[in-house]
Amino acid sequence: MALRKIFRAVIMGPPGSGKGTVSSRIRESFGLQHLSSGDMLRANIEAKSELGLLMKSCIDQGQLVPDDVISRLILASLREMDHSSWLLDGFPRTVSQAESLDSEFTVDTVVNLDVPFQTIKERLTSRWVHLPSGRVYNIDFNPPKIPGLDDITGEPLTQRDDDMPETVTRRLKAYENQTEPVLEYYRSKGVLATFTGTETNKIWPHVHTFLSKKMTQSRKIRGHV
Ligand code: AP5
Ligand code: MG
Is there an atom of ligand 1 within 6 Å of 167 CB? Predict the structure, then answer.
């Protein structure tokens, strides 16, 4: 389904809830541009940029990077994507970040993946990623065709430094304390849609149906059926 009008969405959920995996599917099905704050930070670390080096210790310890740094980075990218439809993954993660986003852009919908913490802890240790594209594999759930290599480019896959068990626990704590209030923020604005489950493949059809309807409505409201 190709998009004709601008549609702006945010995907939320605890670390390892499947935001990256579902985002790839949304991008393929609906043609939204996917912007992941974590992927952008990891690209900066990989490129050894000044920002990347500064942020690496925060990320490796499972803490959030400062609001002003990430807000500047993301908003600058969104301004460049001026007339496109986008899907934000990993941002906003604090109420202050949500307010910064709101000051410049209107979010049409927020997809919230509600996955139990226990499921998450089991998943993250078997995750492998292709850093340049952000493609996510899991040795149990969606393994690459050739072990250790990206399906599309054939380049090597890596494991994230912050996927160690104790770091995952810290990331989940940061989520509870700093990010859960963002859900309330969007709920009160009437744009939050929550999808509960333990398996991405079961959650995905519901997200797909929801977004298909939402985008049709959004075109009608804007008078471009
Ligand atoms: P970020 O990269 O955004 O990490 P995260 O939110 O911790 O989430 P993940 O990327 O780990 O998980 P995901 O939900 O994308 O799940 P995935 O699809 O990979 O952020 C990293 C760090 O950057 C943060 O900790 C922070 O320091 C910093 N940062 C980023 N944004 C920030 C911000 N706005 N403000 C401040 N700091 C910020 O799936 C997870 C795994 O599960 C995969 O292995 C997948 O294959 C597997 N999986 C999915 N479904 C299933 C299933 N049904 N069965 C088994 N496995 C499954
Ligand atoms: Mg991710």
Answer: no
